[in-house]
Amino acid sequence: MSAAVEPCLRLSGLRRLSGEVTVNGAKNAALPCMAAALLSDEPSRIRRVPEIEDVQRLIDILRAVGARAEFADGEVVVTPGGECGGTPPDELAAALRASFLVMGPLLARSGRASCGAPGGDVIGARPIDVHIAGFRALGATVETVGGRTIAEAPRGLSGATIVLDYPSVLGTENLLLAAVLAEGRTRIVNAAMEPEITCLAEMLVRMGAKITGAGQHTITIDGVSRLSGADHELIPDRIETGTLLIAAAATRGDVCLRGVRPDHNEALLAKLAEIGVEIRREQDQLDVCVDHMAELQATNLQALPYPGFATDLQAPITALLTQVEGTSIVHERVFENRMQHLDELRKFGANIIAGGAAPVIIGPTPLSAALVRGTDIRATAALIVAALAAEGESRVYGINHLARGYADLPGQLRALGADIEQLPTVDTLNS
Ligand code: EPU
What we know:
It contains 14 helices and 25 strands.
């Protein structure tokens, strides 16, 4: 038995969530927008930035490549100055996936960029070949030396048609960030269509970039010679929104989410409607109210690139599907290793038959409290959803992952009436 001293969440389940919360700005929009600020010598202000670990880590990286970056009161101000360049320390690069987003801006503005292997959640191989092929198409030479990617374009980048092998989110963002200062026209074909791409493009346009088609399959960029700073507000976090909707449904709750973009969650809203969860939508508000006696129905779903069902909500909705009537199949088609929550869900008593990337969930199963560990941001959120629906007092470990991606999910749930607190604890996982 090994004693592990680490914080965990203590949750008492079977309490109906009820009340109102406001959703934070989007993590996955904050990161590329902060990287975009490197493209100008002038300061940029990004508003509605969530207080999460990944934002702090990217601030450290921006500072390491020569920018001034400050985060206060939900705003990040980045002042790049003329001397930006260099390589982020490898341990910082390895701390988050979005570290690689410094490549596009630094290559575009100084003709050279390098970065160690980017880290992030361990949910699949997560190669960077789409980014590299795109930089090469723009005229850069790219090589990998000692695990670092080094891209060079001493005479600047030239616009090109780039057909992505896969509509990678960060890949599309990195190429957009590089192409805005390239000479001539770039077309990114088979681009990712996530709302975070559109949010980034809007910030770049505010900086003076010429971009059309963001949010569609093909993005066209006409390069400009310089960009100014910008003041830009982030979109609401659609994954936080989805997690809260799912948590509300799992507790048969009565919850109002404010400051949201319902149109960014169409796939989830359609699935919840199919399950039998009624949601009233207004322009920036979602109201979910599930009757205590309502019988929710099973469904099948596939996690896909946007506008398909978000892979980041695949684990949380799996937790909800343990509480609905019938057999559901959830097929993860974006990442090849994003099923690590299943064994932990079984510890609550969930009836899940392993099926590789497409497990079968048989419900409803009464869940009972468990001691579980999240292995990535969204897996940890899924375990919180399960604990909210379980009888008794659960402990959820791995909350360092949660802090990387959710500004204050436990606080939001507490505001909705959940009995949840963070414990410093000397409990052991193996006792
Ligand atoms: N892929 C390649 N080659 C590449 C890049 C990606 O084959 O060069 C593959 C990946 O292996 C994966 C698939 O493409 O199978 C999707 O990867 P993508 O590049 O689209 O993901 P990402 O950009 O690394 C972002 C989010 C993830 C989110 C995915 C998919 C950020 C910082 N991260 O990652 O968010 O799951 O898109 O929507 O924007 C999270 O927030 O918890 C999270 C993991």
